[in-house]
Design goal:
The chain is of the alpha/beta class. It is 28% helix and 28% strand. The chain has a 7-stranded mixed beta sheet with strand order 3-2-1-4-7-13-14. The longest helix is centred in the N-terminal third of the chain and has 11 residues, at 3-13. The radius of gyration is 17 Å and the shape is globular. The two termini are 24 Å apart. Residues 27-32, 81-84, 94-100, 103 line the site of ribulose-5-phosphate (5RP).
C-alpha cells in the first residue's frame, strides 16, 4: 500500500467516531483531507464542521458541508486531525501544514481528539520532524535567538504566511524528552503565537494506518 492509501484508510476509519447530529472538528493536511471526503459521504447526518484552516474550509464547502465559526460553537464532540509525529504517550508534533494554532484551539474545544496517521508518523521520541512555531512577524529574530538558547536550530519557512497572518519557524535538532515542559517554555516566549507541540492536550485515540489494516491506540 502507498502512504496515501494508508492515510485514506485512517481518514475513513475516523467516521466511526463521528456522532450523528453534531458539529465535527476538522483538521488540516493530506490525511485530514481524506477524512473530509469521508465526512462528505455522511453530510446529511451531521450538523456541520468547525475547520482549522482556509484550505480545509474550502474542501468542506466544496462538498456541501456547512462550516461554522468556532465562536458559534460551545463544545465539540470530536476533533479529527493528522500529525507529523506521534509518540507512545499520544503527544504530537503538528504544524507541517502551518495550521497549528487553529488546530490547537479546536483540539482544546473538543471532548475527544482522534489522531489519524500512517505508521511512518510513530516515533519513540519527538523531534526528528522540525518543530513548527507560529510567530508574530516582528518577533521573528528575537524568538529565533531564544529557540537557539533552548538548543534548537530555527529556520524561517520561506514564503509561508499562516491563515492568521504570521510566520513559521521550523526548529531542527531538538530531542524532546519532556514535551509538556518544552511546550510550556516555548509558548512563554513573547512573540510566539503557539508551538506545534501537542503535549498538554494530546490525542485520546490514534488510528494508525499499517499495511495490515488500521490499528487503534487509546
Ligand atoms: C497541519 C498538520 C498536519 O496534521 C500534519 O502536517 C500532517 O499532515 P499530513 O496529513 O499531510 O501528513 O499539523 O498543520
Amino acid at each position: 500500500m502507498t502512504q496515501d492509501e494508508l492515510k485514506k484508510a485512517v481518514g475513513w476509519a475516523a467516521l466511526d467516531y463521528v456522532t450523528p447530529g453534531t458539529v465535527v472538528g476538522v483538521g488540516t493536511g493530506s490525511t485530514a483531507a481524506h477524512f473530509i471526503d469521508a465526512l462528505g459521504s455522511i453530510k446529511h447526518q451531521i450538523e456541520g464542521a468547525v475547520s482549522s484552516s482556509d484550505a480545509s474550509t474550502a474542501r468542506l464547502k466544496s462538498l456541501g458541508i456547512p462550516v461554522f465559526d468556532s465562536n458559534e460553537v460551545d463544545v465539540l464532540d470530536v476533533y479529527v486531525d493528522g500529525a507529523d509525529e506521534i509518540n507512545g504517550h499520544m503527544q504530537m508534533i503538528k504544524g507541517g501544514g502551518a495550521a497549528l494554532t487553529r488546530e490547537k484551539i479546536i483540539a482544546a474545544m473538543a471532548r475527544k481528539f482522534v489522531c489519524i496517521v500512517d505508521a511512518s508518523k510513530q516515533v519513540d521520541v519527538l523531534g526528528h520532524f522540525p518543530l513548527p512555531v507560529e510567530v508574530i512577524p516582528m518577533a521573528r529574530a528575537y524568538v529565533a535567538r531564544e529557540l537557539v538558547k533552548l538548543g534548537g536550530l530555527p529556520e524561517y519557512r520561506q514564503g509561508v504566511v499562516t491563515d492568521n497572518g504570521n510566520i513559521i519557524l521550523d526548529v531542527r535538532s531538538l530531542t524532546i524528552l519532556d514535551p509538556v515542559a518544552l511546550e510550556n517554555t516555548i509558548n512563554g516566549i513573547p512573540g510566539v503565537v503557539t508551538v506545534g507541540l501537542f503535549a498538554n492536550r494530546g490525542a485520546d485515540v490514534a488510528l494508525i494506518g499499517t499495511p495490515e489494516g488500521v490499528r487503534t491506540v487509546k
